Amino acid sequence: MQFKVYAKVDIAELDLKLLVAFEAMLHTRNVTAAADAIGITQPAMSTALGKLRKVLADPLFVRTSQGMEPTPFAMELAEPIRDALQLLRQTLNRDKHFDAATSTRTFRIVMTDIGERVFLPGLLQHLSTVAPHVSVRTVQLPVKEMRDALESGEMDLAVGFIPDLTSGYYQQRLFNRSYVCIARTNHPHIGDTLSLEQYLAASHAIVSAPGTGHDVVERVLAEKGYRRRIALHVTHFLAIPLIVANTDLVVTIPTMLAESYLPAGNIKMLTPPLKMPVYAIRQYWHERFHEDPANKWLRELFCDLFRD
DNA sequence: ACGTTCATGTCAGCTGACGT
DNA sequence: ACGTCAGCTGACATGAACGT
Length: 308
Fold this sequence. Notes:
Layout: H1 16-28, H2 31-38, H3 42-56, E1 61-64, E2 67-70, H4 72-92, E3 106-110, H5 113-130, E4 135-139, H6 143-152, E5 157-160, E6 169-177, E7 179-184, H7 196-201, E8 203-207, H8 216-223, E9 229-234, H9 240-246, E10 250-254, H10 255-261, E11 267-270, E12 279-286, H11 293-306
Parallel strand pairs: 3-4, 3-5, 8-9, 8-10
Antiparallel strand pairs: 1-2, 5-12, 6-12, 7-10, 7-11
The chain binds a DNA duplex through helix 3.
């Protein structure tokens, strides 16, 4: 039998079944037994062997008194092909299960700096015990970019008050919160309570974080026809405690955030003088990743840790 | 919808190695 | 030399993909 010598093996000519046939031949050293082992007839195995011989330009197995013995080239291929098939089997038959204990994955989560303050300490503490090699990266994005990032898989999850993120996205409520006001402890015009007159007379700082629905406070005031003086408009909550503690500004912010500011000192929390809306903190994900094991695991973790 | 092409499988018969 | 076993080959069937 003559074999054409190829400079390179054209992998496009290699049917995966041919490699399975090769593996069976290695194991059985007998065409009939190899065919039986992979559930084809002997002629089919013979055909497969013929194709492999042509593609690989080597007889691969030759008949001897001990049976069909592999050529040196076939022996050379044996281990890499076994390994490759093993890897394919593991990949294709893998458990649809996320192994948190060994995963080195980085979870990318859209959240504001409020979210970082509220969720990250508890999340990271828990991860350090159940998923010690997992990393977390957070990003704050406007809603349009958030949509694209969740859809493409660039981001795994968005967590927060994001009322504009609806169609095509799954969402799950974690807890409800409302708003309170904060002012410095020794504010010259505001004591332990806050009247509507005091509220409207005060200078305010407002935070409009991109991608969130916290501008709802502005809408409530506008609906009731109230006007207030806005002395400062920022996009992050981070600087607020320092600013409030050192000025006469009043800020209307999410309750959970105000609570986290109190230990810093020189800040008091006040009940707003008008009824503030209740909003839901939810986690959001794209339908593409609804069944993704890692994404599922992360969502379940947020539920376990933060859902009320 | 139909015909053609191609890949893949089965069946039957042939070939070669080996033991007696 | 002959029988047996194992593998090879050609003819044919089947089904999917593709073009008209």
